[in-house]
Amino acid sequence: MPTRAARAMAAVEEYLVRRGDGLLLLFVPPFDHTTLDPGYIKGYLPGVRENGGQYTHAAIWTVLAFAGLGDGDKAGELFAILNPINQTRTRAGVHRYKVEPYVTAADVYAAPPHVGRGGWTWYTGSAGWMYRVGVEWILGFRLRGNFLHLDPCIPRAWRSFEISFRYHSSRYEIAVENTRGVTRGVSAVSLDDQALAGASIALADDGTTHRVRVVLG
Questions:
Q1: Burial of 29 (0-12, 13-18, 19+ CB in 10 A)
Q2: Phi and psi dihedrals of 84, rounded to 5?
Q3: How confident is the model at residue 16 (pLDDT cuts 50, 70, 90)?
Q4: Helix 56-68 vs helix 2-15: angle between axes, to the nearest 10 degrees?
Q5: What is the CA radius of gyration of the chain?
Q6: Burial letters for 164-180: b for 16+ Cβ neighbours within 10 Å, e otherwise?
Q7: Strand-pair category, 209-216 with 170-177
Q8: How far apart are CA 111 and CA 53, in angstroms?
Q9: Region 49-59: what's the mean pLDDT?
């Protein structure tokens, strides 16, 4: 139900998005001052891994959920928070994060004195989901067999972006235009200057370069 989906994601933003620290938490508060026993996660220190830290796998699905609601602004903002390269843009950030900026971390600590410290790099399936959410849900590039479906959900400040895609012997140069400053909604698609009825393209392995134009709004 759309109303329940919106309510759920509003609660996520209110309680779990910690913009000041650049974190997207799994839950709050951690299990440390309670007699309740949720299982092994209570064995971690408060704010570490599944015990109330930023657990990247779940955080990435949060970005997917905002994109599913058509909120490209929040999807783009939270994706930028999760992008490890942004954690190390300054010397202070490097010393805070302490792990590789080119690898998705499975978790990021959320409690003093280690707020913002990354953990368990290389050892996480969330890297694959981060790639898919960025490509398929934000850029809206969804390859299904020999069909390409285009449904971007981007920040309204993005006025355009381009994708160069190789399909066997062919190349597809895709240009997405957002002059109206929307977050979602394809109004027109053309393939090699020919208008298409929808946003799905039948891909051809013909050794040529094809040009795709997508207009949002």
A1: middle
A2: -60, -30
A3: very high
A4: 140
A5: 20
A6: eeebeeeebebebbbee
A7: parallel
A8: 8
A9: 93
Spatial distance between the Cα atoms of 35 and 42, rounded to a whole number of angstroms: 11
CA dist 103 and 61 (Å) reads: 18
Residue 185 has pLDDT above 90, yes or no: yes
For the four alpha carbons of 43, 64, 138 and 211, in that order, the dihedral sign comes to positive
Distance, CA of 196 to CA of 174 (rounded, Å): 14
Q: To the nearest 10°, report the CA torsion of 70, 73, 77, 80.
A: 80
Among candidates 77, 199, 200, 215, which has minimal Cα distance to 138?
77
Tell me, what's the pLDDT at 33?
A: 85
Confirm if 155 and 183 have CB atoms less than 8 A apart.
yes
Residue with the two structure tokens 């996480």: 124
Q: Assign 3-state DSSP to the chain and report helix, strand, coil percentages, each to 5.
A: 30, 30, 40
First to last CA, the chain: 25
With 0-12 CB in 10 A as exposed, 13-18 as middle and 19+ as buried, what is 11? exposed
pTM summary value: 0.91
Contact call for residues 150 and 177 (beta carbons, < 8 A): no
Task: Determine the Cα–Cα distance for residues 10 and 62; give it in Å rounded to an integer.
Answer: 11
Q: C-alpha angle with apex 144: 79 to 146, nearest 5 degrees?
A: 135
Q: What does the alpha-carbon distance between residue 27 and residue 32 come to, in Å, rounded to a whole number?
A: 13
